[in-house]
Amino acid sequence: MLFVQSSAAPILVVGMGRSGTSAVASSLQKLGFYGGEPSELIQPDNGNPEGYFELSDFANANDRLRAWLGMMNDICALCPADWPEYDGTPVAISQLKILIGKHFGGRKHWVLKDPRISLLLPVYEHALAEMGMAPTLVICVRNPLNAATSFSKRFGAPARWALGMWLQHTMATLHASTRLRTRVVSYEQFLRSPAESLKPVLDLYPELEIPDSAWEGLKTTSKEALNHGMHSDAELDSLNPAIKLAYELCLKVAGGPKALDQGQFTKEINRQWTEFEFWWTLPPYEKTLSSTLRLIHNSAHGQQKWEAIYLLKRKPQTLELAFKAPRGTLIEGQLSDWPGQFLVTKTELVDAQGTVTPISLECATDVVWAPNELGVIWNIPRIGNHFRFVAPGGPCRFSITFSTNCEPSEVSRIASEYWLECESLRRKLGQR
Questions:
Q1: HEC string of 55-80?
Q2: pTM of the model
Q3: Most buried residue among 75, 133, 142, 225 by CB atoms closer than 10 A?
Q4: Which helix (H) or strand (E) holds 166?
Q5: What is the DSSP string of 106-151?
Q6: Cα-Cα-Cα-Cα dihedral sign, residues 185, 190, 196, 202
């Protein structure tokens, strides 16, 4: 194996594909980080005309690692926590170290880019630690709607899967930032000002001699023409809240690198990671499921609607909606945007004086419900109005406590069947 300096300062460029990893890796190479011989890089194509700046050997090795760890069957799988106990772990680590030595032997400042590393960081950390190195992470993050749209267009994956992948890559790398030196680069900011975006990264390497021409070239270069995204940050309100929260956290971290070094984001990152751990144990479709509680009042003056977006969870959660309607008004409600099974444990109304009154909901005729020792199990076969009740009059709050009540595989099956039905209907409508 070729010798790699134990004092080497490698950079791993990570993040979901189509989030600017290639552009950032390219710029770092121009600023003095070795990224491999040009002949050994994946060649440009229609998907990335300027090049991927990605070594073929590592792309192939990462696919082998994912297959070995059983991560290829689920597009949203993360590196299993017990990977060191897998048969063949010593061999896999040895092969990765040999590959690192082959391409970066004798180099001090080098950069390795491959979005798949985002999900294999524990393996890379282990291999590099055995070689006496701790990597710096450069996390590339893009508006999740634009990243998912680009990924779907490039690879044909359903947009919901792509959004799930965005959350998976983002949370995996953010979680690693609590133990590794990290910088976050916003793709949109990078396109406007590459030099300003990469300055927090370069500040970590004061010993690196950057050619004036390279640095000045980066300062005067705008890459906004590369931004083909059509979605704004304001549109993130329509997504699962976990996706929006993760993106907002990334932008805060990108703008506060010193705060990140001081551990000021650790608590928030860990809190979001704990929530995310629930997600990644689920099948791909369920990972992206968010839903909406709706209350609807139809009258001669039109329709009033009150909504609350929430995550589908197997643990109980309470949602509240404040509304105002005349006494005796029939309020219709929709518990979920997805068919499924729910355990409803408590429904209440709270009036303006704070008086809490338990209420019974009248379920729609196609909602099958059965008493349970904890509440009532609802089997919801479709999207639409699921229940109704009579308004007590004046301003009040509707409160419901519930959880999903079926195995992940069943939720995934229902969600995927519904998605296919929607796609079939869209195709039929498009042919008219």
A1: EHHHHHHHHHHHHHCCCCCCCCCCCC
A2: 0.67
A3: 142
A4: helix 159-176
A5: T-SSBEEE-GGGGGSHHHHHHHHHHTT--PEEEEEE--HHHHHHHH
A6: positive
